[in-house]
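hey so u asked for the seq, here:
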Amino acid sequence: MHVQQISVFLENRKGRLAEMTKLLAENRINIRAVSLADMTDLGVLRLIVNDPGRCLSVLKANDFAAQATEVVAVELPDRLGALHGILEIFNANGLNVEYMYASMGRKEDTGVLFFKVDPVDEAVAVLRRNGICVLSGDAAPIP
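ran it, structure tokens below
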């Protein structure tokens, strides 16, 4: 199981991010997790939303450059070394993490980490074999 992430390429100018979030709010698209990386002329906004297909359509219809990517979502306890444990599993199985970001968990003492790992299906299988709770955009409510 994996989650569809929407990546939006935004011009680095005043108000552009607010324009995009207003558009999503007006279209009842809820942002559940977010990461923003900036470069000189543009930023890459990575979103986990309640309806990725509709989000992508709305963005493209309004001239935002956007694409969908599959990521792995893992629920982790707020515990010393939890992230290291996941990274060790990936490392032991020859999987490279391209990037990651986090969101609040469904419970008070958990967080959700989103990993861009290729191949996604292999990463999910490896995590599950190691007893890690892997979330799905369809089967489990991601915060």
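The mean pLDDT is 90. The domain at 71-135 is CATH 3.30.70.260 (Alpha-Beta Plaits).
lmk if thats what u needed
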